[in-house]
Design goal:
homodimer, DNA-binding, Tet_transcr_reg_TetR-rel_C_sf (chains A, B)
Chain lengths: ~190, ~190
DNA sequence: TAACTGTTTGAATGATCATTCAAGTTAATT
DNA sequence: AATTAACTTGAATGATCATTCAAACAGTTA
């Protein structure tokens, strides 16, 4: 089937899942070949190398996350109202048995100082998320407060992403979020 | 020099550092051989295999962390007084250029569902930390409050460990901690 | 229909991986 | 001094790693 380019979206979805679940180092090209259905040559022609495919997978995941986030933020009057819902979906996710934390967070922590380029790539995407929260908080807050609130949200999200990975105790997680983020507009029925 | 057992403490320190900085998968036995100074045979006799050495490294790190934590908690009247100091050291650490997050957190996120045994090993150590905070909070709080406070602390610590790995902005981190943990006895000057 | 161009194919490559084990070494025991 | 026991040594093993590339293929163009 030469001259019939593969479905890049599908390939990226498979690759993203592999890297997300197994990690960058532990995901072999052989695994990628199996899961994407592409032959090595095709992968290398399309993405250059393993690192290239990883980067595009990161972008694929990050773009989805950002789109999702933006949509939810737009649905509510303020970030203070939207965030309880966002956080609750994160908590719900973290309770599922196949929970795999956040691809960006996992990647960030896996990459070492030696892999500066990849690490910066991930950092950039994470900062984009924070700046989205920051911009949203700016509507009802001074710049300093918005900055602190955005950072506090990031701390809590990172926390949920790590905490939920080893302990599936939903109630405890929710209590901790209420305690740490009392300035959010939590729904009244607890 | 047969019959002269190697210095296990030194070996574990080297191995811990390697695993901590590079991650479990990315640390090869060859690297371990170089850094510990042991020959492959000696490592396998003493630790069984790579996984065994990794486990002992985790324990070595976890024990040090717990000892440190316990000592600091004992130095102050309450956990509410001790924690600002503990958190500030974590923030300080996160600002250093060679910062490498927390070995336990990194390992937890690197291990996948397939490596159940190793993952549980790490989870257990992380839970021990939380229960230490919990026990300390019990002195001045009801059980429910102590539990929520301990969870909130864990969220913030995980947050610092991830946040600090990609963004070295000390002030932002401190502001976020003040915002999220107002019930701690922060020192008056700031 | 013949030549061309961009894509796929998959076996091959050499490097590196975790692990093994027979041989060597040294201290303790007899 | 001879033997035994405990440990170290490091080359070797086979598996798996990321990557390459010549050949096959199928659309497009001339």
């Amino acid at each position: 089937m030469a001259r019939v380019r593969f479905d890049k979206e599908k390939v990226l979805e498979s690759a993203t899942n592999a890297f997300w679940h197994l990690g960058y180092t532990a995901t072999s090209m052989q695994t990628l070949v199996e899961l994407t259905g592409l032959k090595p040559g095709s992968i290398y022609l399309a993405f250059g190398n393993k690192e290239g495919l990883f980067k595009e997978s990161l972008d694929y995941y990050a773009q989805q996350s950002l789109d999702n986030l933006e949509a939810t933020l737009d649905k509510y009057q303020s970030a203070e109202e939207a965030l309880p819902h966002i956080l609750m979906t994160f908590v719900e996710e973290s309770c599922q048995s196949e929970y795999c934390s956040c691809f960006l967070v996992k990647s960030q922590l896996e990459l070492s100082e030696q892999q500066t380029e990849l690490k910066d790539h991930v950092s950039q995407r994470l900062r984009k998320v924070e700046s989205l929260y920051f911009a949203s908080f700016l509507k009802n807050n001074t710049e300093n407060v918005a900055k602190a609130k955005a950072a506090s949200i990031m701390l809590h999200i990172f926390g949920v992403r790590v905490y939920g990975y080893h302990s599936h105790s939903k109630d405890q997680l929710i209590d901790a979020l209420h305690l740490g983020l009392p300035w959010l507009s939590w729904p009244i029925n607890h």
